[in-house]
Design brief:
alpha/beta; 54% helix
Length: 191
Amino acid sequence: MTDRPTVLVVEDDRDLADLYAAWLEGDHDVRTANSAAEALDQFDGDIDVVLLDRRLPESSGDDVLAELRETGSDVQIAMVSAVDPDFDIIEMGFDAYLVKPVSRDELTDLVSRLLARRLYTVEVREYFSLAAKRAALETQKDADQLADNEEYQRLVADIEALEGDLDEELSNLDDDDVAAVFRSLRAHGDE
């Protein structure tokens, strides 16, 4: 038994799944699944991060995402897909979104960030999730499309409200608390 984080790579292209696994194996235990059914069969409480393709045989990655969230697990899930994000992602429960093709550095950095986020409060994790959706949309849509979309405007309002809550929460911490949080994050980032 190891204390290394476990990553589940869900990718229907076996060669690509194997490549992602090879990139991550040095620092992580890696499992691969090539279909939605395999992903759900392999998912358990040992999984720390899921890298999930949106296009899978038999079922979509979106459906797998919904099922994983229904388990109540706080696993970090990143969509890694050739599907450009659209406004439909706003309601999805992922923590990050990468558009293929991805480099080794992008993938390993993403996994590191997701593992570090496990240390954060629920509010901070929610903020990162919403911010990831906003960033994904802003890289794919022009300003007029964003300005005209009500769902996007609600997303921005939710982010701003959460920022206010987080500012208030942060103001309640003393200097020792803040220093402890940063030491914890720095220590986790060095792993």
